[in-house]
Description:
It contains ten helices and five strands, in the order ααααααααβαββαββ. A five-stranded mixed β-sheet has the order 1-2-3-5-4, covered by helices on one side. It is an alpha+beta fold and 364 residues long. The radius of gyration is 33 Å and the shape is elongated. The longest helix is centred in the middle third of the chain and has 50 residues.
Amino acid sequence: MSEPGSSLTRGMLTGVTAYRWAAWAWMAIVVVVDREELERPGVALVLVASALAVTVADTLLLRTDADRLLRPVVVGTELAVAVALSVADPIAYVDGHSQSLGSAWPLAGILTAGIAFGAVGGISAGVVVGLARFAGDVVATGPWTDARTLSALSTIVLYALAGGAAGFAAARLRRAEREIALARARAEVAATLHDGVLQTLAVVQRRTDDPDLARLAHEQERELRDFLAGREAPPEGLVLALREAAARFEDRYGGRAEVVIAADLDEPGADVAAALAGAVGEALANAGRHGGAGHVVVYVEPDGDEVFCSVNDDGAGFDPSTTAEGSGLTGSIRGRVEAVGGRVQVDGRPGRGAEVRLWVPTRG
């Protein structure tokens, strides 16, 4: 069922209402143009009038109480008129007329069912109206041919696809709307906390002489930053190891280390995760010990059959082409990574920080 009061849902219903009016206008034009083919004009007028009544009533509901458009009785009423249009069309016309009464207008009810009840509801509504159209074709006189069978089945399939697509799109759009709202709320909370709680915790860490109090304030600051960044889920495996390495960097060197993990990262094998976490820990230690970095970002994402990891700091930097590698880079970083089949690339410029890029296979 749709979320009441959603501006997104109201926007979708507004679009369907515009379509409903356009479809009804086309149906009225068809009746006027094909009036010579009407066998029972009274039946056609009742059907068109019923569709107009639903169109007007739904428009008024959209303006006064849009949520009621999604109630089963309202959706069911429109679908009932759509079924009547589909079944009674051959009763109103003589055989062989070119344009059916129920060709376009019934789609509005099917789309509304999709918005109200999701993809399954939209598909079900499409099948019901499509079967009604099939029943109308059966009622019509004249020889039953393969072409009529294919036409009836095509109508059922197209109606069902339209209803399912409407439901699927509505669900995805609502999910996006919720994520945007959550991000906005998180940004507002982040701004409030940054100006208050986080700054207070930073002051406590700088001024207190109690190491336990400083450590507690530091842990609380880190947890709050993780929450505000959307990383409140309990870490495990590689993620946990990287955050522990970042925490050690912050504890030992006083800087700030961010760990950013791509959402689609699969957990690598245990040996690969251990090698990567160990190499990142050494890269962080180099950033703090030799570079004097105050801020380091550890970024991890999948890269085909590999895991890519970047350790980027804002420290003193160096020129890799003129600086000999120390034992930490050679043994603790290259040694670990190459032992599991990975590779290492080091980049940096004096005064502009350094970046260690690591690639390791997903499975060692």
